[in-house]
Write a structure and sequence with these properties.
37% helix; two-stranded antiparallel ribbon; mainly alpha; single chain; 5 helices; two-stranded parallel ribbon; DNA-binding; 108 residues
Length: 108
DNA sequence: ATTGGGGCCTCCG
DNA sequence: TCGGAGGCCCCAA
């Protein structure tokens, strides 16, 4: 069995993000101690076993575009809008206003 | 908006 | 144990 400690750390950080806000892959990576591991964060989210668990849809790219989603980008956008977030042409609007910066967390 | 180069974590041979 | 490939990325041109 693979070691999923990294994944779990990612999910733990993700749980900090409240409804109506979003964060980025890079910010999560930073909260885990390495700003350069944003891509690995994406991988971890993609492995999320439960779509209704950790709110992966609240994680977007640092330029404000939507990014990927295991359930399909449309579904990601649908969930974001359900949280009251405005999405236009593949970008989240008012990013400065709704961007959440997660608190640094020690990984296991 | 595109593109190329780079770095991080995992899986697989 | 080592090496290569690839992914929900990032950033500078």
């Amino acid at each position: 069995m693979p070691c999923m400690d990294y994944d779990k750390s990612v999910y733990r950080v993700l749980m900090q993000v409240p409804r109506g806000k979003v964060t980025s892959y890079k910010l999560i990576a930073s909260a885990l101690g390495n700003p350069r591991s944003s891509r690995a964060v994406g991988n971890a989210l993609g492995r999320n076993p439960d779509p209704d668990g950790p709110p992966c849809y609240r994680v977007i790219k640092s330029d404000g575009s939507i990014g990927g989603y295991a359930g399909g980008v449309q579904e990601k956008i649908r969930r974001l809008r359900a949280d009251g977030i405005n999405v236009k042409d593949g970008f989240v609007l008012d990013l400065e206003r709704i961007l959440f910066i997660p608190k640094p967390i020690r990984r296991l």
